[in-house]
Amino acid sequence: MSIPDIFQEERRLGVGAERLGRMAAGVGVAAIAASLVLAAVTAGGVRRLAFAYLTSYAWALSLALGALFFVILQHLTRAGWSVVVRRLAEGVAATLPYWAALVLPVLVSMGVLYRWSHGDVVAADVLLQAKSAYLNVPFFVVRLTVYFLVWLLLTRFFVGRSRAQDASGDPAVSLLLQRRAAPAMIAFALTITFASFDLLMSLDPHWFSTVFGVYYFAGSIVGVVALLTVMALVLQRSGLLRHAITVEHYHDLGKLLFAFTVFWAYIAFSQYMLCWYAALPEETGWFVRRQTHGWGVVGLVLVLGHFLLPFLALLSRTPKRTPRLLAVAAGWMLLMHWVDLYWLVVPEVSREDAVPRLVDMTVFVAVAALGTAFVIWALRRHSLVPERDPRLAESLAFENA
Amino acid sequence: MRWKPRLVPELPDEGQLWGVLAEYDTVDTLLVAAEKVREAGFSRWDVHTPIPIHGLDEAMGIRPSPIPWLVLGGGAIGAAAGLVLQWATNAFDYPFLISGKPLFGLPVAIPVTFELTILLASLGAVAGLFIFCGWPQLHHPLFSVARFLRASNDRYFISIEAADPCFDEMKTRWMLEDSGAKAVEELRA
C-alpha cells in the first residue's frame, strides 16, 4: 500500500470558493432583509422573527460547537485516522467569533423570547421567583459572555496552534494540544450544557430536564459529523483533497454519524420516558405542548427522520463506504437537526399550529448562507490539511482493518 | 483473520496427508503468494500472520462475511419478541392496570425491547461464529508443526489443505516453493 503524496495536489481553497463565499454572503444578507420585511408586514411578525432566529442560530451555533468538540476529541484520543479531516472541523470551529457577535439579536429580543426577563411576570409567579437568583437578565448576559469567552479561547488555542504547526512542523505542538484536551473537554461540557439551559430550556422557565444539555450536545455532534461529510465530498468534487481523504475516512465519519444518531435517540427517549412514566404536571406540560395542535406530527417526523430512517440507512457497511450515499444521508441529518431545534423552540411561540412560516425559512437560509461564507473565510488562508502534523502519514494510510 | 468459506478441517486418518504449509518472512512475498494461491483457484486454504495486514483480504479474495445478516435477523427477532412479550403478558393474556398507565404503553415497552434486540443480535453473531468458523474447534493439525509457533511472532504462513479439489501433492508444493517461500512442509495428521 503506497501512501498518497498529498503535496502533489491542490490543498488550498481557490477562486471558486472565494466566489461561493461572496455569493453565500450576498444570499445571506438578502435573506436577512427579506426576513426583516416579512416580520414588519405580518401580524406578530417580530415575535415570530425572534423565535425563528433563535431556532436557526442555535442550529448554526451547535455545528460550530460540535466542530470544536470534534477537534478537542481528536487530540484527547490521540486519533490518527482523522488528521486529514481535522482541518475542516477546525474551519467550522473557527467561525465561533462570528456566532459570538451574532448572539446580539438574541440578547436584543430577550424580552420577546424569555418570559422570566419581565419583572411583573416573575412577581406573579412563585416558581419564577424561586429561580430568579439564576434566571435574571444581568446574570444571563454574564453567563453568555463567559461561555463565549471559553469557546473563543479554546478555538484560538486548538485551531491557532494547529495552523501554526503548518509552519513550524513542531511535533511538540501535538503533545501540548493532547495534554490540554482533557481540561478543555471539561470546560466544553460545562459551557455547552449551561448554554443550552439558558438559550433553549429557559424558553419555558417552569420546565427542567437535567439531560437537556446532553440532548443539545448529541444533536450538535450529529450535525457536525454530517457537515464534515458533506464538506469533504464537496471539496473532493471540486478537485481538492482528492488523495488525502479516502473511502476509509468516509467510513469512519459514517460510523460516527450512525453512532451519534443512535445516541441522540437514546437521550431523547430517556428524557421522554422518564417524564412519561412519572407523569408529573411540571414535567409533562412541555411535552404536551409538543404533542398537541399538530406538534405531534413534528415529533413523529423526528422519531422517523432523525432516528429510524438514518438508523436503517446507515446500519450496514455499504452506505458508509459509498461517499455519495453517505453525503445524502448527511445532508438529510443536517436538515433533521434543524427540525429538532424547530421542535425545541417554536412550540413556545406557536402553540396552536406547527406549520412553519415563511420567515422561519428565510432566517434559516440567511443563517445557513452566512455560515457557509464564514466557513469559507475561516478555511481560505490555510492549507486544508494539517500539513506537518506528526500523525498525517498515519491518517493518509489509514484503513478500517 | 476474518471468515473464510468451508475451512473447517476434516481430520484424515493417521499418517494421511493433510496439506502443505509454506513459510514467508516478509509481508510483500506473502501478499504476492496469497494472490497466486487465490488465482490458482484454491478454496480450502488460509493465511496465518501475527499482525493484521492491510490488503490481505483483497489478496486472498475474501468475500464479505454473512454474519451481519445473522446479527440483523437476531436483532429483528429480539425487537419483535420484546414487543410481543410485553403486549401478550400485560395487555392480552392477563390485562393488569399499573398506576393508571395504558395496558400496553409503547414508551415503557422500549427498554425491554431494546435489551432483547441487543441480546439476540449479539447471540446471532455468536451463532455465526459457530456456523461459519466451525466452533468449537479444539485442535488443528497445524498445531503439531514446530515452525508454526512463529505464526504468532515473526513469520507468515500459507496453508493449503489436501482436501481442496485443486490440490496436487507435487504441483501445489512446487507452486508454493516458487512463490518465494522460505520453507515448504507437508503435514500429516
Keywords:
heterodimer; A: 401 residues; mainly alpha; 18 helices; B: 189 residues; alpha+beta; four-stranded antiparallel beta sheet; 5 helices; elongated
Overview of the structural elements:
The complex is a heterodimer of chains A (401) and B (189). Chain A is an all-alpha fold and 401 residues long. Chain A contains 18 helices and no strands. The radius of gyration of chain A is 21 Å and the shape is globular. Chain B has 2 domains: 99 residues, 2-Layer Sandwich (Alpha-Beta Plaits); 67 residues, no CATH class. Helix content of chain B is 43%, strand content 13%. With 189 residues, chain B is an alpha+beta fold. In chain B, helix 3 packs antiparallel against helix 4. Chains A and B meet through helix 12 of A and helix 4 of B.
Please state the average pLDDT score of chain B: 87
> Topology as H/E string of chain A?
HHHHHHHHHHHHHHHHHH
SSE string of chain B: EHEHHHEHE
Work out the radius of gyration of chain B. Answer: 24 Å
CATH T-level fold name of the largest domain in chain B: Alpha-Beta Plaits
| CA distance, first residue to last residue of chain B | 23 Å
Number of separate domains of chain A: 1
Largest sheet geometry of chain B: 4 strands, antiparallel
* Total number of strands of chain A: 0
What's the number of extended β-strand segments of chain B? Answer: 4
Strands of the biggest beta sheet of chain B: in what spatial order?
Answer: 2-3-1-4
Identify the quaternary structure here.
Answer: heterodimer
Helix count of chain A, per DSSP? 18
* CA-based shape of chain B: elongated
- Overall CATH architecture of the largest domain in chain B: 2-Layer Sandwich
Strand content of chain B: 5-15%
Please give the share of residues in helix of chain B: 40-55%
What count of domains describes the coordinates of chain B? 2
Low-confidence stretches of chain B: 1-6
